[in-house]
Design a protein that fits this description.
Distance between the termini: 13 Å
Number of strands: 3
Strand order of the largest sheet: 1-2-3
Number of domains: 1
Radius of gyration: 12 Å
Shape: globular
Oligomer: single chain
Length: 87
């Protein structure tokens, strides 16, 4: 699990608190699923499959692109290291 993600306090309602930065934000169900999957060490294909199964989404090309964009956002916010890559 990426170290910074280990520190996040995440509620089922989508409230996320980052004690390192002292920041709080909300995440929708998709973001929560991705945070959980990344924290569990899932790779890109597994995350796409997770989203597809959980939310009934079928366009795996768009899903993969969206997952990678989410990772970039986490990197931009300092929640993942710039060197982090999905397997």
């Amino acid at each position: 699990m990426p170290p910074h993600l280990q520190q996040l306090a995440v509620s089922p309602s989508g409230f996320v608190f980052d004690p390192i930065a002292g920041a709080a934000f909300t995440a929708n169900a998709t973001a929560l699923a991705l945070l959980e999957g990344i924290a569990d060490g899932k790779g890109l294909d597994a995350l796409v499959a997770l989203l597809s199964a959980r939310f009934g989404l079928t366009d795996t090309v768009d899903l993969a692109r969206d997952v990678l964009e989410f990772v970039r956002v986490l990197q931009d916010e300092g929640l993942l290291e710039r060197s982090f890559e999905l397997a």
